[in-house]
Amino acid sequence: MSSAGNEKTLKAGLVGFGMIVDETYRPFFETVHETALYQRSTGPVEVSLDAVATRTGSRAEKYLAERGDKVGGFQSFAGENAIEEMTSTGLNFACVASPDDRHFDSCKRLLEAGTHLIVEKPSVLKLQELDELVALADKNNVTAKVVYHKLFDPDHKKMRTLVYDNILKHVNSGYCSLLEPKAISGKQFAQWITGRNPGTYVAVHYIKLIDYTFGGKLKTVTATGQRGLVGDKDGPTWDSCQLRMIYEYDSGREAAFDIHTSWVTPDNFPGYVEQEVSFRFDNGLWNGHSRKRGVECTVEEKTPFELKNSMNNHFNATFIEPWNERSQRGYGIEVIEQFAKEVAEIEFGGPESERQARLEKIRSLGYNDLSADRQTVATVQALEAILEHQAAGDPDCVVRVNDEKGGLVLYRPGSDEAEVLYDGTV
Ligand SMILES: NC(=O)c1ccc[n+]([C@@H]2O[C@H](COP(=O)([O-])OP(=O)(O)OC[C@H]3O[C@@H](n4cnc5c(N)ncnc54)[C@H](O)[C@@H]3O)[C@@H](O)[C@H]2O)c1
């Protein structure tokens, strides 16, 4: 694909080149390189992956050697100054897909360079960090967004539609679970797993789903977890955890949500990444299950390792289309394409004199804007603090939101002392 003759080009950068890049960013950049991006307001816009910044450069360079032509090649930067070297090539937007606890530093440096940003979930681990990124995006007239692809899952979209249209009325309670195989904690993330927990990594999908779908005000967060498989039974690394959030709605009525996650399910479990949601409303129930909605397939000597028994063909899958072209598509890729369209809209969707108005419109999209990620980040911050206390021999803490002592306040059972995790209003 050549961009000759089309002056509308978005130059992109990518931080990290691991599992999620392989599943979503790589197919997005390969497809858009082939097809460009279309919207009526912008006309065709080329999107080129120009630079990649990683810790060592090895995976990015392997890809470049094997199939770099699929994206037209890019510059690979590694080491301490990789982000600065990457932004000096002049980027319009950048995607951050490094490990969870390394997002903030990269995002800050990208926003300082005036680059539109999209970061993998969880955006950041503390509200203080969120405040800094939102202020930087504001100052430099760019947008800062986060990827929650489960909001694009057709089943979750349908539930939100029924809530939005007031067909399902007032949620009372919910239970969600997401179980990852042992290979994730044991192999894939072995390099950065110490001190981490599966709740921050995946419960965050459901925290956002609940926060965005039902609205309301977060009031209380409690959590616990188990150890002993990934790390020491008394150490800081978690096998599984259980989180509870209490919300209050405009009516004054409350709802409770429990989210259970683990990354130690046996690798030969047919459910693979097993996902379940169950919500109870005043007038109804919504039950969703990744295996029940899906496919069950067995192939001798291939399942469940090389091929999965229950594949999520909605998230991201490779296909032969009915017209015999190969493709890779799904909601995991759609969510990145939508962000690229939003950036294209800001930069090319009308006259320069109206850019600010377009930027503000895109920033007002609560599904992905960092400014609307407050209650989700607050829950993650609370979860991390509660687990940290538990690992230090101080279990069963409770975090309350916006009480008289602060925005996010941790209380230990049997103690009058309060630990303020975040001063401002959540
Ligand atoms: N949306 C989803 O469903 C989903 C699924 C998996 C992962 N993720 C998220 O994507 C992110 C990455 O996860 P992954 O599964 O790809 O991890 P991974 O371990 O497979 O890859 C991490 C990548 O980041 C790079 N890296 C590490 N430290 C870095 C640094 N300081 N600067 C630049 N690059 C650095 C590594 O070189 C590697 O390329 C995480 O935030 C994770 O939560 C999202």
From TrEMBL:
Domain of life from the UniProt record: Bacteria
GO molecular function: oxidoreductase activity
Matches recorded under InterPro entries: Gfo/Idh/MocA-like_OxRdtase_N, Gfo/Idh/MocA_oxidoreduct, NAD(P)-bd_dom_sf
Gene3D superfamilies the UniProt entry points to: Dihydrodipicolinate Reductase, domain 2, NAD(P)-binding Rossmann-like Domain
EC number in record: 1.-.-.-
Enzyme class: oxidoreductase
Pfam families: GFO_IDH_MocA
Assigned protein family: Belongs to the Gfo/Idh/MocA family.
PANTHER family: CONSERVED EXPRESSED OXIDOREDUCTASE (EUROFUNG), CONSERVED EXPRESSED OXIDOREDUCTASE (EUROFUNG)-RELATED
Name by which UniProt lists this protein: Oxidoreductase YdgJ
Name of the coding gene: ydgJ_1
